[in-house]
Amino acid sequence: xxxxxxxxxxxxxPARQLPYPLNIYQxxxxxxxxxxxxxxxxxGFVFAHMxxxxxxxxxxxxxxHYSEGLxxxxxxxxxxxxxxxxxxxxxxxxxxLHLHSAYSLTIMNRRSRPTAYQSRRDYIAAxxxxxxxxxxxxxxxxxxxxxxxxxxxxxxxxxxxxxxTVYANLVHSLExxxxxxxxxxxxxxxGVHLYxxxxxxxxxxxxxxxxLNAARRGFATVFTAVVIGLNLTFPVAVLAGVVSLPGS
Length: 248
Known about the structure:
By secondary structure, the chain is mainly alpha-helical.
């Protein structure tokens, strides 16, 4: 007879506990809060960015003046562009936290998901939004890189780029149909991401009462429609010649 063999379960070593309040982020609830708060910051940014870009309809003087105003925020209290770089740094930190919390929650969900039978209906209900958010997020992240290289550094698809002539740089870029298409397609992906994010952030923050669902859906719909609807007018206006360089 073969001897009895006792197999001890392999336990996962618990993660090292961080000091308070950093240890809150180690929980799923903490990660959801971070994701929601950084999401709110990005929603504020895209809304403010959209409002500022509306100045392109007022012509090159107003639009370039708006751009210069961003570089001179809080000047002379702070050196020129210091406040702008503080805002950029804050957005970069928020982006890193947003990405990390999204990745961490995905890993936690996979580890906790049962391997037993799961109905197709449950699969669709539980995963459609997350899969959509993942791919729309990747598209938006790629677009951010393209946007910076296009209109901030003038490295990509920016004919005649010149620092300070923001209106002319924008028109020259969006006059190229393939560039305008990238902006249009990326904004549609941003719209999907915004809608799901605006809808789910309330739940992440604990406001998940079914009585609030109509208000949550209405807010997500209106906010997304306003931001993306107006953003889409920018490349379309340039392609249609509504926005153009003086004398062209």
